[in-house]
User: What shape does this take?
Amino acid sequence: MMTRVLPLAALLAALAAAPLAGQEPAPAPAESENAIIVTARLSGAPMWTIDTPSGTVILVGEIRAIPKTTPWEPARLEEATRAADRVILGARPKISPGDIFRLMFSGGKLTRLPGKSVAADYLDAAQLERLEALAAAHKKDYARQSFLLTAFRMLREELRFNRDTAREPADVVKDAAEKADIPITRAATLRGEDVIDNLFAAPPSAHVPCLVAAMDATEAGPQVVEERAANWRRFNIPAVMANPLEAALGQCWPWADETLGSELRGIWVARIAEASAAKGTTLAVVPLRVLAESGGVLDQLALRGFDIAGPAWK
Assistant: This one.
């Protein structure tokens, strides 16, 4: 029973308001703030800065599962974190023992299609043909498996996108902030019960775009994993966003969910707005797809008058 729950726990682990009125022109950052920005940028992670009347907000655009072969410098990000006044990290679910038991005894609702239904009941002929071809090529049976679990298994087992990975920016910043006693704020803490309810409520059809995007990435081949990371390191943000792997992750739960995904994006805008009123330097690690997607956090901040410096994101 516990073995069946492990993929579900991995799905849950995948998770992540002051008014934004027009602002007066901001003064140049203090010398110490400039030093933090320079040091942070030397890490090689793409980032954007917002100068405010009282300080600076640094937004680090994070992708998950960076290959070890990607040349970036976590030590520089650690150094910048130690000089920051505060840190903001992504939302996380608060999972209780009751949530775990609920997954153990009801997890079949998330791992299998409902009742006696099969993939053919939800997919069109072209989608079904692709799924069956991939199942045969990889010696898997996807007919009764939930589309969300199938998508994640394709990305994990066929693309192996989360194998041989380096430390991720959020972990680097979290560890450095804890060691230096820098205050850490989570963008939000989500109740595990609410997250599980959200998953249970979604019909199989809601996960079809996720499955299709995962098939696109799997068919494109393992090279998309390295290409995504290389473009992240080159600050070629449009190329990262167009990468089949990144597109698949963005099409899947929780980011593609109308309720939870919208809530997470709104939370980030609110947290950054609050940070813009704080004194000193705030360093925030934000999922790149949330920052750079059309209508995402950077677009919303720009529309509301913030002067954003950093790589082009569209």
